[in-house]
Amino acid sequence: MGSDELRVQVRAIVAQHARLPAGIDVVGDDDDLYDAGMGSHSAVSIMIALEGAFDVEFPDALLNKGTFRSISSICAAVTGLLGSPPG
Amino acid sequence: MLRIGADLVDTDEVASSVATLAAAYLKRLFTDAELSRHGGPGTLLGPASHPLVARHFAAKEAVLKVLRAGEAGVDLRDIEICRPGGCQGAVRLSGRAAALAEAAGICRVFVSLSGTGGLAMAVAAGMEGADGQR
What we know:
The complex is a heterodimer. Chain A is globular, with a radius of gyration of 12 Å. Chain A has a single domain (3-83), classed as Non-ribosomal Peptide Synthetase Peptidyl Carrier Protein, Chain A (Orthogonal Bundle). By secondary structure, chain A is mainly alpha-helical. Chain A contains three helices and no strands. Chain B has a single domain, classed as CATH 3.90.470.20. Chain B is built from five helices and five strands. Chain B has helices spanning 11-29, 32-37, 40-44, 50-66, 95-104, and strands at 2-10, 79-82, 88-93, 106-116, 119-128. A five-stranded antiparallel sheet of chain B has the order 1-5-4-3-2. Chain B is globular, with a radius of gyration of 14 Å. The A-B interface holds A 16-17, 19, 39-42, 44-45, 47-49, 51-52, 59-66 and B 7, 9-10, 13-14, 17, 20-21, 24-25, 28-29, 57, 61, 69-76, 95-96.
């Protein structure tokens, strides 16, 4: 999967679960999603949706606010998980 | 010393996630014991259970604040809400949540849950000290 395709998928998942007051279209890839109105429950929902969409599991070390702070940080985390060896 | 944490959750937001993410959502947030205590995923997926799910989410987030988890990654399943009845109960910690509590000298954590209309809330209190059982 290319990085552009992954970014499109991540943006779609964030759009569905982040409940941003102004919507996803005004959010840049590096903008802070918490500043844009995303709450902790939304971040958890995004994490679970990502796990289902990409067949990955976020380890404890990635279950923090920083991982879900921006579209770019989420893409970086998913890219890392997709590249991780199984097990 | 007492540490306090609180959290407020929109029940409709939780209901939306339950509807969209289904059992995967519940199994990522609840321990096996919690799922069993409340009738299993099948029961918890029903609309009547959404306020309960929202209160439990709020409770776990409130405990994270007690633990001052910050950027430390904590699986919400490491925080188990033990609620034999009523609206308050003890919390059983495991994994990284237990490690954070131990590092902070927190020996016991309690929660109080509430909700009304479309909101669910929880307050958690952590007792620092050597006495008591975590």
